[in-house]
Amino acid sequence: MEQILLETERLILRPFALSDAVQVAHLAGDPKVSSPTMNIPYPYTLEMAKGWISSHAARWQDGSGLIYAVTEKETDRLLGTVSLVQICGKKAELGYWFGVPFWGRGYCSEAVTALTELSFTKLGIDHLQAEHLSSNPASGRVMVKNGMKPVASIMRENRDGILSNVETYERKCPQI
To answer: Where does the N-acetyltransferase domain start and stop, copy by copy (predicted)?
Structure first.
């Protein structure tokens, strides 16, 4: 089954293409994007972007993940990504990042809203989880705007093996 395309007022959410790799490496390679995340390495190379993009189709096909390129509808410019980074039965973990030039414009919240709606209405997901480093409160604001509730603060190792304070959130399907 092909990955479902999503459209919002300003955005198109589509599968990534290998042709997006240069822009992914540029956007995710900005330390302002990678440093407040648990998983994006720095430096982030073109080869890393190609490998990451190449993994998406298999994750969609086996039902373990769903990764979207978020593009601006008017220009087709890549802004960032929103994804279900881990799907396990009826539960999924939400993840996202956006390039610095696109922060503070509501794009991330708009994309998360679209993916949340798809998750609950068409994918059979009834429970979303997400987390962010405590040092990145803007990410938490996106979660709250999308109906997620804070659950706990925990300590977890980041990509460099350093213990970091992480805020966890969840949202259950409204029909539950």
So the answer is: 10-149
